[in-house]
Hints:
Layout lengths: L2 H9 L4 H13 L9 E4 L7 E6 L2 E6 L2 H14 L4 H5 L3 H6 L7 H15 L2
Antiparallel strand pairs: 1-2, 2-3
Amino acid sequence: MTYDDMKNMLMMVDDDAVRLEILMDFGRNLEPVPDGAECSEIVGCTSFVQICRKENQFFGVADSALVRGIVAIMLALVNGKTAAQIKQMDLVGEFASLKLNLGAGRLNGVNSMIRFLQNL
C-alpha cells in the first residue's frame, strides 16, 4: 500500500478510534525484514522499534500494534527513496497532516523515527 493510499483511507474517517484501528491494520501488513538488511533500533520510542534498510527499500519491526502502524506509514513515505531525497522531505509536516490522535510518548517515538530517517 502506498503512502497516498494510507492517507486517503485515514482522511475518509472522522472518528479517532476508527482511525487508530486503521493505523493498526497498516502495521499488520509490514513485510518481513529480508536477510542482509541493515537494522537500527530507534532510540526514543516507548516500544521496541527497528527500521531496516536494504538499498532503498525499508522494512520495520515493532512490538506494539499501534507502533507497527506508525512504522508502516513512515516506511511508505520513504520507501524507494535515497538518503538525499529523504533529507529533502518534510516528514514532520506530512505525518502531522494525518491528524492522528497520538499521545506524547508516541509522538516522541515518531520524532525519533523521523530524525533517524533524515540522518541516514
